[in-house]
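Chain A, query sequence.
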Amino acid sequence: MSGQGRRNERGAAVVEAAFVLPMLVMFFAAIVDFGFILNDLQQVNNATFRAARELSVDEYSGATGCVADPATAPDTEKLVCMVRNFSGRPPAETYVRVVPPASMTSGEQVLVCLTTRARSITGMAEPLSGEIWLKSARYVRIESDEVDVVAHSDTLPAGTDWTWCT
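Chain A, predicted structure.
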């Protein structure tokens, strides 16, 4: 009788594993996606910080690739280019806003904002990641009187706005 009971239990363990294993795989895939989304958020924050810092000292070393001539391009164009380059995301997927002060003098602050959609690596967060926007806003104090930035605001997709960037 005990041999008969063991055979039935072995079958039950396989059935239980068949139910639990897919849920565990989905759980671990969600953890991986969450990690990649956090990494992307850190990259967005770092991009905004680095570009804002270079703006404050009037140094645009990251403005290559999307500005025809960094030596003659306007400061705003170089700043937007740097934010996009530093973000590590395709330029078409990044949206930048620059809010300069009333007077561009040393000591005043410029606001630099960047937003982009989160992306799913494993596909498990794909239904959610299209709705998650990674956002970063940085105020930076101008340290050089040679900085000349004008307001810039990329057009965001429908359903989103710049109200958080203030």
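Residues 2-153 form one domain. The longest helix spans residues 2-56.
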